[in-house]
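>> received
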Amino acid sequence: MNSPTSRALPRLRPYQCLAGRAIIESALNGRGLTVTVVMARQAGKNELSAQVEMLLLAKNARRSLDGVKCAPTFSPQARISLSRLWSRILEAGLDPLASREDGHAVRLGRARQLFLSAEPAANVVGHTASLLLEIDEAQDVDREKFDREFRPMAAPANATTVYYGTPWDDTTLLEQAVALNLEMERRDGVRRHFQFDWTAVAELNPEYGRFVEGERARLGENHPLFLTQYALKTVSGGCLFSAGQRAQLQGKQPRMAGAAEGESYVAGLDVGGQELGEMGAAGPSMGPSTALRTGSGRAGGHDLTVLTVARVAAPASGALMQEPRLEVVEHMAVEGEKHDELFARLVDVLGRVWRVRRLAVDATGLGETLARLLAKALGPSVVQPVKFTAESKSRLGYNLLAAVNGGRLKVYAADGSSEYCELWRQVELARAAYRPSRTMNFYVDASSGHDDFLMSLALVVEAARDLDPRPRVARGRSAHTDTATS
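>> returned
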């Protein structure tokens, strides 16, 4: 590209220059366009923004004008943008004319670039965006907050507005702006929307392409994070597993009664609501994650306590992702057993029968006491307590999907058991809901039953995370069980 604008943006790639030229020409000519820039992760949207800001500041250094950039948070997001702009000013040798003000602004001559938080409680009223109004990570910015407090900043000077980000679902501020821009383009032919997925970057940066191909292998093409951050497609709620993913989950290994010599095992324990007996105050209780599991309760009774055991196998020969494979070989489901009685049973099953190397256990609510006692009996290096929060459950869901998509999680062959049937019933009924800030929830709807087998399956994947698939060499026996040295 040989236009004056592209020559003024020497650090940018051709696809960045396309968007940069549209933004700068609209800003300098007072056109007041709204531009949407959707780029794959690490494709350079922040560098584009910094270059555009520096050029507009330099062009208007003799005028008392402000540009405004907002982000979902001030620290780290807006602060990182401020630092990048300042670095570009230093590199350009403009620092004698520049200064940083109040920790949230960069001045060049009389012109100024402000960096503000778009968090709901942030006080931003009173600023005017005369040069440019930018919204970073617009998919995570609250629409009501933006419409009420940021959008009016562009009104006095009819400032150009730029939305940057990657897709999430169809309800975000970014998607709203993209849809409007595409409609405007159809009407008048003026390009306002610029979108470049990972393949556009890979054409110019082969190393980037190799990295994203690795992410595609690790996560799977249909994983929500790969779809949104690299393929630039939105996600929507619905079934957690497609028919293809359910087919991938089905394995051929037989169900087992105990550990085989020389093999490594992990387990996931989802703790149901039960009487505490001597371990704590007796009385009615809810399942430990009722608040987070939409529809997790069983009509007429508590959730089951479900233990899933999986063999840890080395990666398949020639596999692109060198992560261990998990072969589910056993389920144990218990309903109504007091936790003190259940504790003794679990210690024997996990320590002597399976000699598990790691147990990820639901430590929410009543499960916290059980997890603590299991850690004392089996060893703190073996037991990994997992408290269900919106963030931790989101991570469990993403990792479960990645393991299925990558062919790294297989359930034992059909054996006609009630455990097998219940697991697959929950797998088929499992739903996914996507929240702001790229978090997800997964569950079985209340009208359909409960999700204890599903959660135990997610926990067994968590138990194997970062685990070396090679079995440990025995060096002695634990005072409590055989587990610590298996």
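>> Confidence is low (pLDDT under 50) at residues 1-6, 275-300, 474-486.
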